[in-house]
Amino acid sequence: MSTALTSSQSRFLRGQAHDLKALLQIGAKGLTSAFLAELDAVLEQHELVKVKIGAEDREARDAMIGEIVEKTGSALVQRIGHVAVLYRPSKDHRQIVLPRK
């Protein structure tokens, strides 16, 4: 269950993410349950997160990003090189108000 975004919402979130630093990084061990648990907690707290992916192969990065989006229920806002921007609204305290269209 991933979050669906309109093009204007994606544009808005890209602007919000511009000044963010990557909070998490996937290393040589790849996608682990500990990483997913940490990402889930960070998404709940911040809603908008940059993740740095250490895989050298572009297809491997795309596969990892797809798996992250699927397992966390988040939306891929943007992917540039090794960095992916993910968004998932918080269940308890929403901070980011998305534009309607």
From TrEMBL:
Entries under PANTHER family matching the protein: RNA-BINDING PROTEIN YHBY
Which Pfam families does the record associate with it?
A: CRS1_YhbY
Keywords assigned by UniProt, alphabetized: RNA-binding
Q: Where is the signal peptide?
A: none
- Which InterPro entries does the protein's record reference? RNA-binding_CRM, RNA-binding_domain, RNA-binding_YhbY, YhbY-like_sf
Source organism superkingdom: Bacteria
Q: What is this protein called?
A: RNA-binding protein
